[in-house]
Automatic annotation (TrEMBL):
Keywords: Calcium, Hydrolase, Metal-binding, Protease, Serine protease, Signal, Zymogen. One of its GO terms (molecular function) is metal ion binding. Its cofactor is Ca(2+). This is Peptidase S53 domain-containing protein. Ca(2+) binds at residues 594-595, 613, 615. Residues 1-23 form the signal peptide. The keyword Signal applies. It comes from Xylaria hypoxylon.
Length: 636
């Protein structure tokens, strides 16, 4: 890392010198990004004052991203001679880092526009250029006008309707911020306390005695024993050196050891009390003492089942963020800490959206250290039960994040994300207006609103299934019906090669009938989820008792546990972890028990129905552990 920083410093110096000698050909500004209208709940209150401070960030385009499918197929397709020959972090850096020309041209242009060199700060990895500026200077640089906007909760920020970049450097720029975005953590003048809007599993309090439930109750309440019986998961795991499984939680969500002990003592026969995850605290790693499902529910659910299914294999908890929630941690903070190649200026985080550290030491529970960058190794499998609406960030930001998951896949990491719990509508039941803005919470109109990162083609998206009402272990599963599992088609990401045949078959045999006024029905975009796993009424220890939680938050850690167990078997056999899964899953549909009953809902519709083959309600279907293991063990 130090070598890279020195190299960047020397290159920046060279760029300054060359700009003074040769200059950069001038060219007219070309519109780079624009928006249509003002999002709901925001009001324009004035023009921005010229002297308002603003920190501009120019995200430089990375190289070779157009070859992502080629690279990923090489290491993850079951017929590839190089299956499992994953990349090193240095190979990732050298392949995708922006070109020297991108940094040089951008810096030279800024200098020629009158920006003093001391206010220009390139990142260590050449991915960003930061400029400490003012509204007046930013308007000149970007040929735009900034205004001041306020939302219904009192947040005040600056934004513009569009911005332009000289044609000569536009090819080097992904996006500039703050510009057109409306996010409570972007370009903010006055902040409010922002709480994470994310998937939260539904729960109900249940009266359960101290004895484990019988398997004939698995259609009403789910336990580890039920999951082993439904999918054929082994009764006992094994601790294998080199194997690892990671669960991600974001503060204030916090597990409680007493609750885990209560669960282990009743619903497992092999996990001793006080068995705890390895806690890798990221940028604070805050663990709250608060009680209740709002704080303990998600984390307890994930860890109860991840640990029960893979024990005695250790589980690592990536606990992200501190006790300051006005700028909560995001997936980018996680990526920084587990992937040194991702870290850029200030740990790689963007102040428009991500948690920026150090925080104010006067705030209790604030993290006052430097942002973590490459601090921890990534586990072989990582399960994340959090997401956001695909439209909640600009396409440039979301695409950039998705491509980082691709890079982790190239390095051999399997990433699981829950597909969502509100069907074809977004979190909180928000759909999408014609102008691209979200509809009000719980609305019954608008376009379908896919969830991200579930819609990213470089992760495995896990949807929700269930035994039929009053069904038995061994019955064919149906689409989860106590809630509406997330699924559909991306509005942003193109159709990956591995999914092309499945999507073509779906449309040719089971076209859902909606037109483009409802969703992007081009047949050329990423569909999700990839698989479906049990997700209803998972008994979970909480506040000294038990509650039953429902949602795809339960499905992702369960499927992640299956892959972790198989990784252990592969490592024992002298092989490596499986890495990115989707190439194998779509090449081997025999792994799955097809789900053909049930549907989703949302935006005033029944969403998508389960049909034969892949569909947006249940993906490829529910996995059979035995066949999944046989296929993955047969690979190099």
């Amino acid at each position: 890392m130090m070598r890279m920083m020195i190299g960047t410093s020397l290159f920046f110096t060279a760029a300054l010198c060359s700009s003074l000698v040769f200059g950069l050909p001038t060219s007219e500004h070309v519109v780079h990004e624009k928006r249509d209208g003002i999002p709901e709940h925001w009001t324009k209150i004035s023009e921005a004052s010229d002297d308002t401070p603003i920190d501009l960030r120019f995200a430089l385009k990375q190289r070779n991203l157009e070859r992502a499918q080629e690279y990923m197929r090489e290491v993850s397709h079951p017929e590839s001679e190089n299956f499992g020959r994953f990349w090193t972090p240095q190979e990732v850096i050298s392949t995708f880092a922006p070109s020297e020309e991108a940094l040089s041209d951008t810096v030279q242009w800024l200098l020629q526009m009158g920006v003093a060199s001391k206010r220009i700060a390139p990142s260590a990895g050449r991915n960003w250029v930061k400029v400490k500026s003012t509204v007046a200077e930013a308007e000149k640089l970007l040929d735009t006008t900034y205004s001041v906007y306020q939302d219904d909760e009192g947040t005040i920020l600056v934004a513009c309707e569009s911005y332009a970049i000289p044609a000569g450097i536009r090819q080097h720029i992904d996006f500039v911020s703050p510009t057109i975005q409306f996010d409570p953590r972007m370009g903010t003048i006055t902040k409010r306390n922002a709480k994470r809007e994310a998937m939260r599993p539904k729960f109900k309090t249940v009266n359960i005695d101290s004895e484990p439930l019988e398997l004939d109750s698995c259609s009403q309440l789910t336990t580890p024993a039920c999951l082993r019986a439904i999918y054929g998961i082994p009764e006992e795991g094994e601790a294998v050196e080199g194997n690892s499984y990671g669960i991600v939680e974001f503060a204030p969500q916090s597990y409680n050891q007493v609750d885990l002990n209560g669960f282990f003592s009743v619903y497992t026969s092999n996990v001793p009390n006080d068995t705890a995850p390895i806690v890798n605290g990221i940028d604070g790693g805050y663990l709250s003492d608060d009680t209740g499902s709002g704080t303990r529910g998600e984390s307890n659910l994930d860890l109860c089942y991840a640990m029960a299914l893979v024990h005695p294999q250790n589980v690592t908890l990536y606990q992200v963020g501190d006790a300051t929630f006005s700028n909560p941690a995001t997936n980018n903070n996680l990526l920084d800490a587990i992937d040194g190649s991702y870290c850029t200026f200030e740990g790689g985080d963007n102040p428009d959206w991500d948690g920026i550290y150090p925080h104010d030491a006067s705030v209790p529970g604030a993290y006052t250290g430097e942002p973590m960058c490459g601090t921890y190794n990534a586990t072989n499998v990582i399960s994340v039960s959090y997401g956001r609406n695909e439209i909640d960030r600009p396409p440039s930001y979301t695409t950039r994040e998705c491509m980082e998951y691709m890079k982790l896949g190239l390095m051999g990491v399997t990433l699981m994300f829950s597909s969502g719990d509100t069907g074809v509508s977004g979190i909180s039941g928000r759909c999408v207006k014609d102008n691209g803005a979200p509809t009000p919470v719980g609305s019954s109109y608008g376009k379908f609103n896919p969830l991200f990162p579930a819609s990213c083609p470089w992760i495995t998206s896990v949807g929700g299934s269930a035994l039929p009402v009053n069904g038995s272990v061994g019955d064919r599963e149906v689409v989860a019906y106590q809630f509406s599992p997330g699924g559909g088609f991306s509005n942003l990401f193109p159709l990956p090669d591995y999914q092309a045949a499945a999507i073509a078959s779906y449309y040719s045999e089971h076209d859902p009938g909606y037109n483009s006024s409802r969703y992007k029905n081009s047949q050329a975009v990423r569909g999700f989820p990839d698989v479906a796993v049990a997700s209803q009424d998972f008994i979970t220890g909480i506040d000294g008792g038990f509650q039953a939680f429902t949602g795809t938050s339960a499905a992702a850690p369960t499927f992640g546990a299956m892959i972790t167990l198989i990784n252990g078997e592969r490592i024992k056999a002298g092989k490596g972890p499986v890495g990115f899964l989707n190439e194998v899953l779509y090449a081997h549909p025999e792994i799955f028990n097809d789900i053909i009953e049930g549907h989703q809902s949302g935006c005033g519709t029944e969403g998508f129905h389960a049909v034969e083959g892949w569909d947006p309600a249940s993906g490829l279907g529910a996995p059979s552990y035995g066949i999944l293991k046989a296929v993955l063990m047969s690979l190099p």
